[in-house]
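Query structure, 250 tokens:
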């Protein structure tokens, strides 16, 4: 367990707890709003917008894509519910619901990966992207999400680390929603990943303001997010990746 001293004195950490409820709850709402706004035309309000094609050009949502949307929406709702339970000091309920959260996370990783393979297999990708190369983008999202959630579960008794790891897990999958916000996609991966992962710096700012120090989770978690962007772009163009992608999408 990381001692309280990593974020200031015990009294400082205790005093900041009431602000934690506002910050982490607010981040949950902000990230959900980004996802809903980004996917409103093609998923949440699809009929209202006249069922426009997705960014990959698909004119209809496959059953797998609908399941994908439902599962990831459940995560957004669960995150807000879990932060609300902590805010209301219903810790026991939060922990029990955490079991469902772990199962949901596993489901998300499976469904998210299947959806990515299916899209690449049928040649779907954003404009200007090669489908097999683009496959690296969503798969890396799943790898990062899995890593953060798994670490958060291991550190579940360390509430200071746990809640920051879960926030980073959420941020690791929000780039897809950011990319679909009006006017963002044409600027490419560096733009939507920059905005998405830039949200993690709100955590740094909050720690510095509330504790006077930054939690060590951010020292490795944020660089991991940032470095994953050039890593996936470089890997996606290698012959080894092309062979892997072709094998997985047959």
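Result returned for the query:
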């Amino acid at each position: 367990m990381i001692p309280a001293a990593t974020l200031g004195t015990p009294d400082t950490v205790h005093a900041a707890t009431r602000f934690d409820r506002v910050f982490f709850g607010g981040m949950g709402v902000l990230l959900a709003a980004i996802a809903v706004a980004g996917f409103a035309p093609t998923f949440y309000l699809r009929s209202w917008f006249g069922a426009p094609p997705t960014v990959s050009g698909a004119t209809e949502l496959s059953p797998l894509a609908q399941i994908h949307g439902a599962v990831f929406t459940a995560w957004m709702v669960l995150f807000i519910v879990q932060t609300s339970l902590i805010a209301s000091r219903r810790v026991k309920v939060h922990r029990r619901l955490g079991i469902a959260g772990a199962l949901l996370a596993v489901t998300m990783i499976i469904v998210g990966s299947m959806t990515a393979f299916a899209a690449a297999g049928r040649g779907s990708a954003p404009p200007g992207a090669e489908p097999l190369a683009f496959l690296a983008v969503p798969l890396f999202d799943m790898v990062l999400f899995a890593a953060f959630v798994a670490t958060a579960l291991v550190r579940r008794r360390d509430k200071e680390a746990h809640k920051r790891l879960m926030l980073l897990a959420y941020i690791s999958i929000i780039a897809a929603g950011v990319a679909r916000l009006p006017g963002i996609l044409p600027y490419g991966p560096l733009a939507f990943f920059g905005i998405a992962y830039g949200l993690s710096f709100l955590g740094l700012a909050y720690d510095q303001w509330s504790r006077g120090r930054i939690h060590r989770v951010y020292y490795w978690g944020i660089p991991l997010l940032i470095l994953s962007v050039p890593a996936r772009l470089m890997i996606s163009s290698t012959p080894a990746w092309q062979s892997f992608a072709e094998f997985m999408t047959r």
